Structure formats: structure tokens, C-alpha cells
């Protein structure tokens, strides 16, 4: 539980953010009168009261924000167009260019973005524009899932709600082509605070695939503090992919709040390769019968990267299924945290929940803290969980080497095989090929080639 | 081809090999027999380069090179092959991908051209006939969920592909029914040439009805205590190992 630490001194980041709010307000051009702005101001007040969490907070025990919150970061609100060279280098993913949204420091770059979907099926808008064009829809859904009043990072995001994406898939619309969102964090001129706010609504029996990819450029510091709210209506299907490959000076704190209604499917795959401090909060409220929820994760940090995955499968209704598989390959001085909570409420009889977290440590200085938490209040359920952490097995390594495969190549082969069952859950072929390529190259590097 | 001189090895504090001497020439088949715990599998593992063992003294020369100085993959490159007693299951690595990686790694080591996927597939089809291996096994993960016989057949298939000079078969026959045993032995015999040699490590004589040895050695307490022709194997089958133990005890070793 987060505890408000009213008495502690304000950190440099908090001071900087509070100061910059007035400047931010001025950019809202008359929108400051709308109900949304009351929400922002309330959130700012909460942020000021709460301050940032420290390792004394149970949920932040193994992830220390100390370094991050003692830096002054510049709130990003205006588009700084990336150079063509940067765009070319960092924003490629062939085959997924038809429905592409590019955010540079959290601001939609309309020049680089392109949506070629039927607007009678789906609405894809910059959140700022959606607030003007579809005020009732935004009002109905925004900030209704991400409501934790004790979460300072959520409060900070809410205080600056403006940029982000609004996706609304109409009932029965099946969107076959994935929507691809590329985030570029550019720290070449400033140390930046980037706070996208996304709202994604899938109406009844609709279907959507979304791919999010994070990259960064520059040597300055960066923090992505992203909040995404997702509504999956009855019988809808949402495939959601998140790839994180930032530079070593850019941190990411992501909060994804999902609400599933009956007969719906939500599949999340999170692949994290690099960054400074990465914290992914993924909460799924399974609020209907016969739902299916998959949480797949792969993290492969090196250097001193810290990757923390906090997940929650909150089973509220009977007869649903959740399946969580997170795997980590940690090298260098990197650290990992896995905190997976399965919560089965009393009404959620016949729940079937599975969780597994496996880690391979490639160096003696890498470490991982893994904490499965099962809280079960119903008596007729099937839940299982397991976690393992260890070095790469010597036996298979020797077997491969005895067949002439050099040690480094054999290690890469085994690590790739370890990651394979997460990778094979990626259902977009070009995306899977891309991730396999990146991971493959990464594992070759990791195992000493 | 292979000269083992006075080889001592231990695992932890436990001394397992106590002065092995053995010479194997091209074209020969040697059988190494012995009771459980005599050091047969250790000898095979030490030759293949398993790291668990510490060589305390002695030397091994293979094709004119100091074998003990080479990494396991280099030994394979030089032409040594160990068919494992318990082949390892590796989920997530496809059998075909593994075979091609191994084949090309060895070709590279030998300074030969590597094969692309199509050419390799063609080669694989030819070799498949030798051991009567099922196509379905090749697209599955390496040894994962294979039966005992399928695993052993897969070992011999690897041997056929990698074309070693010296093959060491570690208890390849144990746990096989007679049909599987026949298939495996036919494969081994088909691969035999004047330039290659085979060491068959086995507890049972049965295998030697199918793979006929030129020399039979009895290993006991980490030493070769008796050597002879193929008739020695028959004698062991008939009389068991106790008389060997008694003979050794009488000599006072």
C-alpha cells in the first residue's frame, strides 16, 4: 500500500513538475474551463501531497526511484520533429507502416503518422483532438480505470493529460491490420519528462491488434511516465504488444489498466530489452465470465538496467482463465523484479489461473527478485504458479558443444530456446520475426560473441 | 588414431580412472566392458571433454594432437564423436536447426564450405535412410519427448551426418528392444570404413552380436584389467564379471 509522505521534503523532480504546471496550463487555450482540467488540478494536488514513493512502500521495495526523482526533467508538450535520419534509423518496422502513429517525446508527429483504416469501424485520434471531437466518449471512459488515489506517478500523468492516443473500435468491427505506435524519446537537447496518456475502447465483439514500440536517442535523461486505460467489452478480442528498447539513460514507468467484460480476450506481450529503470504495471480486472487473459513477458537486460514487472490478474467473476508466463535473461549488473499477483475474489468460482516466472542469470552480478502472490477467496478454483532462477544448465551446453557447436553459439541457441515459448505467442508474423531478430542478436552479444 | 597413456581422472575427491592405457587404430572396433561403476562412462566423458572431471595425470593423443588441451567443440571438429548414454532433451531447439548448426560448425572448423538450408536438407534426406529415422522427429524439438529408441537413433543419425573419425558409443544398447538395437547397429556398421574407428562402451554382450569388435577390454576399478578378442565378450556374458573381480583380487591390486 502506498502511504502519503506529506512531511518529506519535495524532491527536485516534484519541484520542477509543480513549477512547470503553470506553463502547461497556458498551452491549453481555453480548455482550462472543461471538467478535464478540474481532474488535472486535483491530480496535481494529490501528487504534491503524496510525493514519489520510496523503497519503504511495499510495492516499490525493490525498485528505487531515488536517482530519478532527484533530477529536474522538462515536461514535453511541443513537437520537436526528429531528423529524417533518426526517423529512418529508429522508426522502422517493415510491414507495419500502414497504420502508424509516431510520438516524439509524447507528442503525436502527424507528418510521420498515417492511418488508413475505415473510420466507420474505428476512431484513431490524438487524445487532445479526441477531447474536442468526441467529448462524451472521452468523458465516459477517461480516468475511470486508473483511479488509485495513492499512486503519485498516476497523479503526475493525470495532471498533464493532453497527449496520447484515443482508439475506439466500434461494435463488431474487426480490425485485421495491426496499429503500430512508435515512441521516440529524444534527449539530445534536454532531459525530458514524457507522459503519454492512452485510452483504448473495444466495443462488443470487436477485435484489435496494437503494437507499441519504445526507442530513444540522445545522452540526456528521460522518463516516460505512461498511463494506458483499456476497455474490452463483451466478446471483444485485444492483442496488445509492447516492445521496450530504450537507451541506458531513459527510464519507463508504465501503468496499464485493463477492464475485461464477459467472453472477452486480452493478450498482452511485453518485451523489454534495455533502458535505465523500467517498471511495467499491468493490471487486468477480469470482470466477466468466460474471459481469457494472457500475460507474456520477456526481459533481457544487460549493463545496469533495472526491469520490474508488476502484474495483477484480478478475477472477479466465475469461469475465467488467466495465463501468465514471464521469462528473464539477465546479464551484467542488471536487476530484475517480478511481482505477479493473482487475486481470486469470492464470486470467481471455477477460475483457472496459471503463472510462471523463470529466470536465467548469466553473470554473478546480475540478480532478480521474484515474488508470486496468490490471494484466493473462492474455494473451487484451479491455480498454479512456479518460479525458478538459476544459471544456464551445463548439461545441454556440453551436449551442443560435443557436436562441434562453439560455446558462445551454443549458449545463444539455448537462451533463444529458453525465450522461445514467450516468442511463439507473438501472433503478428512480421513482429515476431523482428523481435526474434533483435533478441537473437542480443543473445549472441550476451553470450560472448 | 587414439593413444591413451596412463590416464588418471577424478570427480571431486573421488578417483575414478586409475591409469588407463589404450590404443585404437583406424579401421578397428574396440569394445569396453565392465561392471557398473567401473569407470566406462567416465572414460567416454573424459574423451569427449566433459568439464566435471579433473585429469590428474596421463595424456591422450588423438590424430596427432593433445586431446586434453582441446575444447569439446574442437574435439568434435577434429573428428571425435560421443553417442550419449542419456541424450539431452532441449526444448525450443528444433532438431533440424541443431543438426545444421552442428554440421556447419564442424565444416567451418575443418575449413570446408558450409551448406545452405536447401542443400543441407538434401544431405539430411540421404542420411536419414541409414538409420531409418522418421521425418517427424526432425521437425520436433531436440530429443524432447523422444522414446529411448528414438533418442539413440537420433544419436546415430548425428554420427552419420557429422562423419567422425572416432565414434564412442556410450551404452547405446541399454534400454533398447531388439528391433531398435538392430536399426542402431546397422547404422553403425554402415558408417564403418577403413579410415574410421569405433569404441563401444557396453555392459551387455548382446550389442556385440551386431557390432563385431576386433578387441574387447574389461574395465574394473578404473583400469583395463583384461583384453582379448571377441570371444572374451562371450565369456563375460556366460560367466558374469565376478571371476574378473576375483582374478584382480588374487593379483592383489
Describe the protein's architecture and organization.
The complex is a heterodimer of chains A (449) and B (253). Chain A has 449 residues and is of the alpha/beta class. Chain A folds into two domains: 73-392, no CATH class; 393-449, no CATH class. In chain A, 24% of the residues lie in helices and 37% in strands. Chain A has helices at residues 12-26, 35-50, 66-69, 84-90, 127-133, 135-141, 152-159, 394-401, 407-423, 429-446, and strands spanning 74-75, 100-104, 107-108, 122-126, 165-169, 179-186, 192-194, 197-202, 207-217, 222-232, 237-245, 250-260, 265-274, 277-286, 292-299, 306-315, 321-330, 335-344, 352-361, 367-376, 382-390. In chain A, strands 1, 4, 5, 7, 8, 10, 12, 14, 16, 18 and 20 form an eleven-stranded mixed sheet that branches. Chain A has a ten-stranded mixed sheet with strand order 3-2-6-9-11-13-15-17-19-21, covered by helices on one side. In chain B, helix 2 packs across helix 3 (95-109), helix 4 (117-131) packs across helix 6 (148-162) and helix 6 runs parallel beside helix 7. The mean pLDDT of chain B is 90. Chain B has a six-stranded mixed sheet with strand order 6-9-10-3-11-12, sandwiched between helices. A four-stranded antiparallel sheet of chain B has the order 2-1-4-5, covered by helices on one side. Chain B has a two-stranded antiparallel sheet with strand order 7-8. With 253 residues, chain B is an alpha/beta fold. Chain B has helices at residues 40-48, 72-78, 95-109, 117-131, 135-139, 148-162, 178-191, 230-239, 242-251, and strands at 2-11, 14-24, 29-33, 54-62, 65-66, 80-83, 90-94, 141-142, 166-170, 197-201, 215-220, 223-228. Chain B contains nine helices and twelve strands. The relative contact order of chain B is 0.18.
Amino acid at each position: 500500500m502506498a502511504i502519503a509522505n506529506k512531511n518529506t521534503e519535495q524532491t527536485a523532480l516534484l519541484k520542477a513538475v509543480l513549477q512547470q504546471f503553470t506553463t502547461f496550463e497556458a498551452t491549453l487555450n481555453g480548455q482550462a474551463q472543461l471538467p478535464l482540467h478540474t481532474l488535472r488540478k486535483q491530480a496535481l494536488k494529490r501528487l504534491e501531497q503524496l510525493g514519489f514513493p520510496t523503497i519503504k512502500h511495499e510495492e516499490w521495495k525493490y525498485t528505487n526511484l531515488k536517482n530519478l526523482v532527484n533530477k529536474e526533467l522538462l515536461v514535453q508538450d511541443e513537437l520537436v520533429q526528429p531528423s529524417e535520419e533518426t526517423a529512418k534509423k529508429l522508426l522502422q518496422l517493415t510491414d507495419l507502416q500502414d497504420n502508424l502513429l509516431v510520438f516524439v517525446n509524447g507528442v503525436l508527429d502527424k507528418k510521420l503518422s498515417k492511418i488508413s483504416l475505415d473510420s466507420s469501424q474505428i476512431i484513431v485520434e490524438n487524445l487532445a483532438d479526441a477531447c474536442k471531437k468526441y467529448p462524451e466518449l472521452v468523458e465516459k471512459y477517461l480516468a475511470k480505470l486508473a483511479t488509485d488515489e495513492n499512486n503519485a506517478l498516476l497523479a503526475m500523468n493525470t495532471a498533464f493529460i493532453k497527449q496520447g492516443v484515443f482508439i475506439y473500435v466500434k461494435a463488431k468491427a474487426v480490425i485485421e491490420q495491426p496499429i503500430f505506435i512508435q515512441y521516440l524519446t529524444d534527449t539530445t537537447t534536454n532531459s525530458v519528462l514524457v507522459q503519454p496518456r492512452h485510452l483504448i475502447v473495444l466495443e462488443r465483439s470487436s477485435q484489435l491488434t496494437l503494437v507499441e514500440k519504445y526507442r530513444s536517442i540522445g545522452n540526456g535523461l528521460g522518463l516516460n511516465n505512461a498511463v494506458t486505460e483499456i476497455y474490452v467489452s463483451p466478446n471483444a478480442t485485444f492483442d496488445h504488444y509492447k516492445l521496450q528498447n530504450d537507451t541506458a539513460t531513459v527510464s519507463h514507468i508504465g501503468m496499464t489498466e485493463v477492464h475485461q467484460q464477459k467472453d472477452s480476450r486480452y493478450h498482452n506481450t511485453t518485451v523489454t530489452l534495455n533502458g535505465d529503470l523500467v517498471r511495467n504495471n499491468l493490471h487486468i480486472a477480469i470482470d466477466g465470465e468466460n474471459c481469457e487473459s494472457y500475460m507474456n513477458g520477456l526481459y533481457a537486460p544487460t549493463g545496469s538496467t533495472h526491469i520490474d514487472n508488476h502484474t495483477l490478474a484480478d478475477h472477479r467473476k466465475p469461469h475465467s482463465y488467466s495465463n501468465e508466463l514471464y521469462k528473464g535473461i539477465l546479464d551484467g549488473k542488471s536487476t530484475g523484479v517480478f511481482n505477479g499477483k493473482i487475486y481470486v475474489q469470492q464470486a470467481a468460482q471455477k477460475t483457472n489461473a496459471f503463472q510462471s516466472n523463470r529466470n536465467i542469470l548469466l553473470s554473478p552480478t546480475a540478480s532478480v527478485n521474484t515474488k508470486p502472490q496468490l490471494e484466493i477467496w473462492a474455494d473451487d478454483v484451479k491455480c498454479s504458479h512456479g518460479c525458478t532462477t538459476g544459471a544456464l544448465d551445463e548439461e545441454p551446453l556440453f551436449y551442443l558443444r560435443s557436436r562441434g557447436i562453439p560455446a558462445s553459439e551454443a549458449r545463444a541457441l539455448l537462451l533463444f530456446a529458453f525465450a522461445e515459448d514467450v516468442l511463439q505467442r507473438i501472433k503478428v508474423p512480421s513482429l515476431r520475426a523482428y523481435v526474434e531478430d533483435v533478441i537473437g542478436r542480443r543473445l549472441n552479444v550476451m553470450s560472448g560473441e | 588414431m587414439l593413444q591413451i597413456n596412463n590416464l588418471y581422472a577424478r570427480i571431486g575427491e573421488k578417483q575414478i580412472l586409475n591409469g588407463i592405457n589404450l590404443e585404437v587404430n583406424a579401421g578397428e572396433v574396440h569394445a569396453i566392458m565392465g561392471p557398473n561403476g567401473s569407470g566406462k562412462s567416465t572414460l567416454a566423458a573424459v574423451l569427449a571433454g566433459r568439464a566435471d572431471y579433473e585429469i590428474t595425470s596421463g595424456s591422450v593423443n588423438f590424430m596427432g594432437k593433445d586431446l586434453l588441451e582441446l575444447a569439446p567443440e574442437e574435439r568434435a571438429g577434429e573428428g571425435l564423436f560421443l553417442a550419449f548414454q542419456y541424450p539431452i532433451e532441449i526444448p525450443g531447439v528444433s532438431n533440424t536447426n541443431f543438426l545444421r548448426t552442428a554440421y556447419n560448425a564442424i565444416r567451418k572448423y575443418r575449413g570446408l564450405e558450409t551448406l545452405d538450408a536447401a542443400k543441407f536438407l538434401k544431405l539430411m534426406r540421404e542420411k536419414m535412410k541409414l538409420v531409418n529415422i522418421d521425418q517427424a522427429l526432425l521437425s520436433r524439438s531436440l530429443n524432447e519427448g523422444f522414446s529411448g529408441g528414438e533418442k539413440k537413433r537420433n544419436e546415430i543419425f548425428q554420427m552419420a551426418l557429422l562423419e567422425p573419425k572416432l565414434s564412442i558409443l556410450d551404452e547405446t544398447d541399454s534400454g533398447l528392444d531388439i528391433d531398435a538395437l538392430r536399426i542402431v547397429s546397422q547404422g553403425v556398421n554402415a558408417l564403418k570404413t577403413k579410415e574410421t574407428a569405433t569404441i563401444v562402451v557396453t555392459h551387455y554382450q548382446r550389442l556385440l552380436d551386431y557390432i563385431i569388435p576386433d578387441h574387447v577390454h574389461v574395465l574394473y576399478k578404473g583400469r583395463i584389467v583384461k583384453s582379448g578378442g571377441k570371444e572374451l565378450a562371450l565369456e563375460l556374458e556366460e560367466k558374469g564379471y565376478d571371476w574378473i573381480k576375483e582374478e584382480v583380487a588374487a593379483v592383489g591390486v
